[in-house]
């Protein structure tokens, strides 16, 4: 089949979105089109190719054999087109928009981001922090750093670090009750953010199935950094990721009484849309952060 000026490139764009999302409705949301308009564009493409690209079932669609063969090639083609445009538009005024969890931004990025700026002085950075998982199709962001169990459909990325949790407190607070010798000793002290499910999970793993956490205030302080700050001044015990607070432990401001840590299956991931993986500023940040983590990882 020979391409011509009348070849339905817009229909291919719609097909790419529908194939990635597995839904005409979500494809329409991404492209700003109605479901009816998406269905019409898919029908045009099917008529042009002469094969059904989707199997339609009540409230569900799936790729046909022809659709399965076409989808990766179309996705790759649009990625190449986007890279081509990015290569001429990603100029010295480009801004890299990073969306990060507050804790990762405060405890890791703030301590290392200067290294990225030194290596890439032509890339401005805008950092936005929130615990909410953003939708790249609806919000402006180049990359996101998420606490999650893996990659969502349509996203590419890399696992950055394990996120394990353990109780931590100030050494002086531990001394105030004669030391922490067993997990039950922690319950003699105020528990910071006792409503966090990680507390119950950690205690269960440590052999205490009913720690009685309901007697503590169910505070939600939004970030480990705030919990850690309260712990360092002796206001209670916080459930924290020891890796984020290694400097505070080394300086004697925090103390981890037990080696046992709990992980609920979520870790930190760097994610970005699959079709933007080769945008120069995204590629530059990806290369930098993976190398920086490798160089700064504990021995």
Automatic annotation (TrEMBL):
<dbReference type="InterPro" id="IPR036390">
    <property type="entry name" value="WH_DNA-bd_sf"/>
</dbReference>
<keyword id="KW-0238">DNA-binding</keyword>
<dbReference type="InterPro" id="IPR058163">
    <property type="entry name" value="LysR-type_TF_proteobact-type"/>
</dbReference>
<dbReference type="GO" id="GO:0006351">
    <property type="term" value="P:DNA-templated transcription"/>
</dbReference>
<comment type="similarity">
    <text>Belongs to the LysR transcriptional regulatory family.</text>
</comment>
<dbReference type="InterPro" id="IPR036388">
    <property type="entry name" value="WH-like_DNA-bd_sf"/>
</dbReference>
<dbReference type="Pfam" id="PF03466">
    <property type="entry name" value="LysR_substrate"/>
</dbReference>
<protein>
    <submittedName>
        <fullName>LysR substrate-binding domain-containing protein</fullName>
    </submittedName>
</protein>
<dbReference type="GO" id="GO:0043565">
    <property type="term" value="F:sequence-specific DNA binding"/>
</dbReference>
<keyword id="KW-0804">Transcription</keyword>
<dbReference type="InterPro" id="IPR000847">
    <property type="entry name" value="LysR_HTH_N"/>
</dbReference>
<dbReference type="Pfam" id="PF00126">
    <property type="entry name" value="HTH_1"/>
</dbReference>
<dbReference type="GO" id="GO:0003700">
    <property type="term" value="F:DNA-binding transcription factor activity"/>
</dbReference>
<keyword id="KW-0805">Transcription regulation</keyword>
<feature type="domain" description="HTH lysR-type">
    <location>
        <begin position="7"/>
        <end position="64"/>
    </location>
</feature>
<dbReference type="InterPro" id="IPR005119">
    <property type="entry name" value="LysR_subst-bd"/>
</dbReference>
């Amino acid at each position: 089949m020979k391409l011509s000026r009348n070849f339905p490139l817009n229909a291919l764009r719609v097909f790419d979105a529908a194939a990635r999302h597995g839904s005409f409705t979500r494809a329409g949301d991404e492209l700003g089109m109605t479901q009816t308009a998406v269905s019409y564009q898919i029908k045009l493409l099917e008529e042009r190719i002469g094969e059904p690209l989707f199997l339609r079932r009540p409230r569900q669609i799936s790729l046909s054999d022809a659709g399965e063969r076409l989808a990766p090639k179309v996705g790759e083609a649009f990625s190449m087109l986007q890279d081509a445009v990015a290569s001429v538009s990603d100029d010295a005024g480009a801004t890299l928009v990073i969306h990060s969890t507050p804790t990762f931004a405060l405890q890791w990025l703030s301590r290392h981001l200067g290294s990225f700026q030194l290596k890439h002085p032509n890339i401005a950075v805008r950092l936005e922090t929130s615990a909410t998982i953003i939708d790249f199709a609806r919000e402006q962001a180049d990359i996101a750093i998420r606490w999650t169990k893996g990659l969502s459909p349509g996203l590419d990325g890399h696992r950055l670090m394990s996120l394990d949790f353990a109780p931590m407190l100030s050494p002086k607070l531990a001394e105030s009750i004669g030391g922490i010798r067993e997990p039950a000793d922690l319950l003699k002290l105020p528990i910071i953010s006792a409503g966090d499910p990680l507390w119950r999970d950690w205690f269960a793993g440590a052999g205490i199935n009913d720690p009685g956490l309901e007697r503590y205030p169910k505070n939600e302080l939004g970030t480990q950094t705030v919990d850690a700050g309260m712990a360092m001044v002796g206001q209670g015990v916080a459930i924290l990721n020891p890796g984020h607070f290694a400097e505070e432990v080394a300086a004697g401001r925090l103390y981890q009484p037990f080696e046992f840590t709990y992980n609920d299956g979520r870790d930190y991931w760097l994610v970005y849309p699959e079709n933007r993986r080769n945008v120069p500023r995204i590629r530059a940040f990806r290369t930098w952060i993976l190398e920086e983590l490798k160089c700064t990882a504990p021995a």
